[in-house]
Design goal:
The complex is a heterodimer of chains A (133) and B (746).
Chain A lengths: L1 H5 L10 H26 L7 H13 L7 H19 L5 H23 L5 H8 L4
Helix pairs in contact in A: 2-3, 2-4
Chain B lengths: L1 H10 L2 H6 L5 H5 L6 H4 L34 E6 L2 E6 L4 H7 L23 E4 L6 E2 L10 E3 L3 H16 L15 H9 L22 E3 L9 H10 L5 E3 L6 E3 L13 H5 L5 E3 L12 E6 L8 E7 L2 E7 L12 H5 L13 E3 L5 E3 L2 H13 L6 E5 L5 H13 L5 E3 L28 E5 L3 H4 L1 H14 L2 E5 L10 E4 L2 H8 L4 H8 L3 E6 L8 H14 L3 E2 L2 E2 L1 E4 L5 H6 L15 E5 L14 E6 L11 E4 L8 E4 L4 E5 L12 H11 L9 H11 L8 E2 L33 H4 L2 H10 L3
Parallel strand pairs in B: 1-5, 15-16, 15-24, 17-18, 17-20, 18-19, 20-23, 24-25, 25-26
Antiparallel strand pairs in B: 1-2, 3-4, 3-5, 6-9, 7-8, 10-11, 11-12, 13-14, 13-26, 21-22, 27-28, 28-29
Helix pairs in contact in B: 1-7, 11-19, 12-19, 12-20, 15-17
Classes of the chains: A mainly alpha (133), B alpha/beta (746).
The structure holds iron/sulfur cluster (SF4) and FE2/S2 (inorganic) cluster (FES).
GO molecular function (chain B): 4 iron, 4 sulfur cluster binding; metal ion binding; NADH dehydrogenase (ubiquinone) activity; oxidoreductase activity, acting on NAD(P)H
GO cellular component, one term (chain B): membrane
Cofactor (chain B): [2Fe-2S] cluster; [4Fe-4S] cluster
Amino acid sequence: MAQAIRNAKVPPNSVNLEEARQRVFEFFRSACRSLPTVMEVYNLYDVATISQLRSTIAAEIRKNDHITNPKVIDLLLFKGLEELKNVVNHSKQRHHIVGQYVVGRRGLEQQELAAKEQGISNFLKNFYNSNYS
Amino acid sequence: MGLGLLASKAMRPTASRLLNFQNPNNLLLRTIVSKPELRKPEPAAAQPEAPLVDLSPRTPVGGARVHFSNPEDAIEVFVDGFPVKIPKGFSVLQACEVAGVDIPRFCYHSRLSIAGNCRMCLVEVEKSPKPVASCAMPALPGMKIKTDTPVAKKAREGVMEFLLMNHPLDCPICDQGGECDLQDQSMAFGSDRGRFTDMKRSVVDKNLGPLVKTVMTRCIQCTRCVRFASEVAGVQDLGMLGRGSGEEIGTYVEKLMTSELSGNVIDICPVGALTSKPFAFKARNWELKGTETIDVTDAVGSNIRIDSRGPEVLRIVPRLNEDINEEWISDKTRFCYDGLKRQRLNDPMIRGPDGRFKPVNWGDALAVVAEAAHQVKPEEIVGISGKLSDAESMIVLKDFLNRMGSNNVWGEGISENTNADLRSGYIMNTSIAGLEKADAFLLVGTQPRVEAAMVNARIRKTVTSNHAKVGYVGPATDFNYDHQHLGTGPQTLVEIAEGRHPFSKIISNAKHPVIIVGAGIFERKDQDAIFAAIETIAKQGNVVRSDWNGLNVLLLHAAQAAALDLGLVPQSEKSLESAKFVYLMGADDTNIDKIPKDAFVVYQGHHGDKSVYRADVILPAAAFSEKEGTYENTEGCTQQTWPAVPTVGDSRDDWKIIRALSEVAGVRLPYDTIGGVRSRLRNVAPNLAQMDEREPAALPSSLRPTFTQKVDPTPFGVAVENFYMTDAITRASKIMAQCSAMLLKK
Ligand code: SF4
Ligand code: FES
């Protein structure tokens, strides 16, 4: 699988939104298929699981779910593919992966949490934070 | 303190003089004394010198205070020319202490009898031909004591040399290193060279059980441990075998030391012969941070110091408090600390549909609990606080449940008809120190030796010093002092109350009679009748009068007195059986089978103990070593714990958890800081705000129904089955498990 990604070519532009959509799914699948290799290459077993990484990828894709212009989608796909290539080719190092997709992901969660914390007292905010604030 | 000072005093002129050997004899004589003037010391001349010394009042050693019970008995002695007034009967050593001079010592201990066998405390007394052992010599009027003369110094050097003759050079591998009397005093008073070239003697180590490690070669035969065991602990386990250089401390036969106070020999042993087994080779004492706090494993509230390094509690040692624990603590207090590291809850957890716990974050856990609490009727909400809960968390729990509309909140060990209205009805009115005055004891359904070892030590002290009579009603049990076993059940009480029992005479003849009732009786259905009988006995024996209140209740756990002060008493027996939402705040000794199957159970606590098996949500809390909490002991003295180490994992202080939960549940409690909770406490129970003070209860007016109900003839039960394992912390402790396996008589 990894070999296929390494040799992936930039496809021609998508003609319509439907095609772009299909390409996104393709991209997601190939990314998912490369995850076992990624786990192996970067030795992520003790910090993340495949399913966590998968949902990280899905979340990254969903971040752009409001985009309807196929050209923009093509560009984002291109960038995604580039990133995926870099990852699979081991052009990155472990801490990049951990920082961006494992811990960075938690940061995202915390942002969501912060949104939930609107309208609660300072006491409760500190309480959630730690015992000593 | 004094030792460092003395050391510098002793050393100052030495160094330079030793270096230049002006006298060729110095080389030939191979002398041991460190200073030329010590080689042929002359007794200090008895000239009636005008005191050249500074006569301004000095501070007594360790803040020693003298109390003159009878002003005529005061005598005056001179310590290094400085006059001091002391009561008759003081020893020379005590007189020196009052004068602010610290005399080196090994065998003397102010709470033990005087042995006078180490000879380290020699001082010169004018007109006496030889130096005298100051600990054993009574001070006489006009005595002129010299503590700083060449004779005294040479005597100390000599003693030191003899002691070190057979003491191994173990200091680098000795656990006592750094807090060793022998080390300190040989630095201060010893010679800087030895003449000893032979082999040192060695002694076989003894096995004293899982708590005390022995390295008997290090023993200097001061016999403090022997005296402690027989005088304070009341067990004749330790003794001295052999004579002369064959002298050994041992247990005569292969036997373990089975006292509940055995750990104290570690503190009193001046050298490293008796050290703590669990602490062996764990740390050096100068690496440790000491936190002065109190103990919560029983209702005595012994004052302790928690020694920690980083996040780990490494040992617990006693702190002096004359009113509560003197300077001893029980083995459970001292060695339970390894339980603080095991079985800890560190994340909030929710039980999933598969019955396994899943760690979640605080927000989710509290949301689940709040949701569940809102789905049941207010009457179906029940809260129980545990044995180790502090007063703050109990009042917050009560406030929270009240705001949820429920009043079903109580503390463990308190049952429906427990009297919480009259404070005198549940605390130790005589006070622990006050027990020393007593001359007759009636113990009702209580085994003080296992329920409150420090109170038992006081009773023992009283029995040995006043020859107080002890009568005991309850199941057969162990006592370490003379007692009469009067009976096993409440009928005996009735007999005493009706004057049909010989012991009624003893009570009514006693000047200071004391009745101690065990809190185990709170669990009985007929407790009103029993208390009525006891009050009758008290009335007939004149136990409660304006100058003496001898009617006591001995509580069982640290939270009980405060819980009763705050009125955490169950409204009805049945409320637990019909509960749908149960909040267990550290309650591990509640019968969890009584909780209905469909109830939602929240467990807030620090250990994965019994109740966790039934819990649906776990909220991790801080243990007593990690939080600031108010506790009231059995005599009504309010004290506070201080955090020694940080909390484990993601746990929080108890009161904060409930405060946060109240907000998530939409019934926000009006305090945000511990200060806020304390001012709420002050409103409910003002005595809980008076730190370190014993608030005596007002004299009771008899409000109980007198002798109306029939007592239930079932004998009294045993409240504490296993001394070593009574609560979540001690049950998690490996050392306590070893103790119960090896030391409890089966
Ligand atoms: S073991 Fe310690 S306390 Fe006991 S006699 Fe020896 S030195 Fe003294
Ligand atoms: S302290 Fe006086 S002889 Fe030991």
